[in-house]
């Protein structure tokens, strides 16, 4: 069931929160072995929280808009009583968190039930969720393929139908890429607009938490809970969409090119926008990431570099060597590129771009084609997300209704227009132009 359907069933008494929690925990037990999305199952906590929701309802107290809805979080959110590993083996024995992350508290206060923590690339530095300690998270639609990263566990858990929604984090595409490859929705909000307290940091200039769901309606519900202090706002679906071209039209798989052309046609023929110097913007995002990530870990690397995954360690060491003036130049170019994007968003309220080059690459062949040569997927799946990442604008990864393997687009709006952008996604969903998918439901249907 969706977030909305689950909460309605619990509130109406058709299902108890305990029934819903047990069913979710059972699905995790049954499906996680194949997908490897969940790192820790929080059975006792989930059942206790679900029982509390049922007690509230028995006393006539509304537990909130997420009554009894199971969810899980990327393993860089603080969970009281557990070490926050950020996907790193070196932190498995860290001191346990003394409180839940602010986002978890808001969701729990609204009646949601936390059932587990989710796999990720170590310290969120990667696009495939290939973890040296917890293994590879596999795409529920094809277990031979990546789920994307670094929030791959969060995407796979939702796409596999384990939970109706999950939380992840997005620095350079870590929500948008796995959402696209797994056929679900994912958000990178206006920078710093959702609560970051209790989230393990990577790149403070770019880090944001976000949501994975199977419907745009569910996005709206969970987003409104996370914005608990924002007050009631009337959202207006944005108008005047345009399609990003140039950089965003190059290196696409034929199936992605066809899907974008079909979407454009269905929307009446989208005007094309060619942003200037996108390659330079991507390079600037790379440098900001390397510099801030390297500085974040510099002392730990000096003390015990060998405790890091080598693939992560080498990139962090390189970032720690980036000079201050290079970082300053990257920040300065962000203002230049942001002005070009702001101008485009003044003319067109939504910019649409591919989230990835096409469907998920194979785990045993982890490369993607860029400019005529095969490049490592772990570092390059962010080809279309990274140039947008450092602008601080809200982006929704929206799943295209394609046959075969999932693919998605980015819906991009001006800062602060998060609610309006979600409303735009809802309007596209109502027209059947975007649509989330559950891999296990597809498999069940195929067998009937």
Can you give a write-up of this model?
This protein has 2 domains: 3-226, Amidase signature (AS) enzymes; 241-413, Alpha-Beta Complex (Amidase signature (AS) enzymes). The protein has 15 helices and 17 strands. The protein has helices at 3-12, 17-35, 43-58, 102-109, 152-159, 176-182, 216-226, 254-266, 278-304, 310-320, 324-347, 377-380, 386-389, 418-430, 439-446, and strands at 38-41, 70-74, 113-118, 130-131, 135-136, 138-139, 142-146, 165-170, 185-188, 208-213, 241-244, 272-273, 350-354, 367-370, 373-376, 395-399, 408-412. Helix 7 runs antiparallel to helix 14 (418-430).
Summarize the structure.
This is AtzE family amidohydrolase. Pfam families: Amidase. The chain is α+β, with helices and mostly antiparallel strands.
Structural topology:
Elements: H1 3-12, H2 17-35, E1 38-41, H3 43-58, E2 70-74, H4 102-109, E3 113-118, E4 130-131, E5 135-136, E6 138-139, E7 142-146, H5 152-159, E8 165-170, H6 176-182, E9 185-188, E10 208-213, H7 216-226, E11 241-244, H8 254-266, E12 272-273, H9 278-304, H10 310-320, H11 324-347, E13 350-354, E14 367-370, E15 373-376, H12 377-380, H13 386-389, E16 395-399, E17 408-412, H14 418-430, H15 439-446
Parallel strand pairs: 2-3, 2-8, 11-12, 11-13
Antiparallel strand pairs: 1-3, 4-5, 6-7, 8-10, 9-10, 9-16, 13-17, 14-15, 16-17
Helix pairs in contact: 2-3, 7-14, 9-10, 9-11
Domain Amidase: 20-235, 314-421
Organism: Sphingobium rhizovicinum
Pfam family, one: Amidase
* Helix/strand class: alpha+beta
Shape: globular
Residue stretches low in confidence (pLDDT < 50, at least 5 long) are 444-448
Q: Report mean pLDDT, rounded to a whole number.
A: 96
Residue share in β-strands: 15-25%
As a whole number of angstroms, the C-alpha radius of gyration is 20 Å
What is the number of independent domains? Answer: 2
Q: Would you give the CATH topology of the largest domain?
A: Amidase signature (AS) enzymes
Q: What's the number of helices?
A: 15
Give the termini distance in whole angstroms: 19 Å
Q: Identify the CATH class of the largest domain.
A: Alpha Beta
């Amino acid at each position: 069931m969706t977030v909305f359907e689950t909460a309605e069933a619990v509130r109406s008494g058709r299902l108890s929160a305990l029934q819903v929690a047990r069913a979710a925990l059972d699905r995790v037990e049954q499906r996680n072995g194949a997908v490897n999305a969940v790192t820790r199952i929080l059975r006792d906590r989930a059942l206790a929280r679900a029982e509390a929701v049922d007690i509230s309802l028995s006393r006539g107290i509304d537990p909130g808009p997420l009554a009894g809805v199971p969810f899980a979080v990327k393993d860089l959110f603080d969970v009281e009583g557990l070490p926050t590993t950020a996907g790193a083996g070196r932190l498995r024995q860290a001191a346990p968190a003394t409180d839940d992350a602010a986002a978890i508290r808001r969701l729990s206060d609204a009646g949601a039930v936390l059932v587990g923590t989710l796999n990720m690339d170590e310290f969120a530095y990667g696009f495939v969720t290939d973890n040296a300690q917890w293994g590879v998270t596999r795409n529920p639609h094809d277990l031979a393929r990546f789920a994307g990263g670094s929030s791959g566990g969060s995407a796979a858990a939702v796409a596999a139908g384990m939970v109706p929604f999950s939380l992840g984090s997005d620095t350079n595409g870590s929500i948008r890429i796995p959402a696209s490859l797994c056929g679900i929705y994912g958000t990178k909000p206006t920078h710093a607009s959702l609560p970051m307290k209790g989230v393990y940091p990577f790149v403070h200039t770019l880090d944001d938490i976000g949501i994975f769901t199977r419907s745009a309606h569910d996005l709206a519900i969970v987003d409104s809970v996370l914005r608990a202090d924002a007050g009631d706002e009337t959202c207006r679906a944005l108008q005047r969409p345009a399609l990003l071209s140039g950089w965003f039209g190059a290196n696409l798989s034929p199936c992605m090119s066809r899907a974008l052309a079909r979407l454009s046609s269905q929307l009446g023929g989208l005007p094309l926008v060619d942003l200037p110097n996108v390659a330079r913007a991507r390079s600037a995002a790379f440098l900001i990431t390397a510099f801030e990530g390297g500085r974040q870990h510099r002392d730990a690397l000096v003390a015990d570099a060998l405790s890091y995954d080598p693939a992560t360690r080498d990139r962090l060491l390189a970032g720690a060597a980036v000079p201050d003036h290079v970082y300053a130049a990257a920040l300065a170019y962000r203002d230049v590129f942001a002005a070009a994007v702001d101008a485009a968003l003044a003319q067109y309220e939504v910019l649409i771009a591919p989230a990835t080059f096409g469907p998920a690459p194979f785990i045993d062949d982890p490369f993607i084609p860029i400019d005529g040569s095969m490049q490592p997927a772990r570092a390059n799946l962010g080809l279309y997300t990274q140039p947008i990442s450092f602008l601080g604008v809200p982006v929704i990864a929206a799943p295209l209704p394609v046959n075969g393997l999932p693919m998605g687009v980015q819906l991009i709006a001006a800062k602060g227009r998060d609610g309006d952008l979600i409303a735009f996604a809802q309007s596209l969903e109502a027209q059947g132009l975007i649509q989330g998918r559950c891999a296990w439901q597809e498999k069940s249907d195929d067998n009937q």
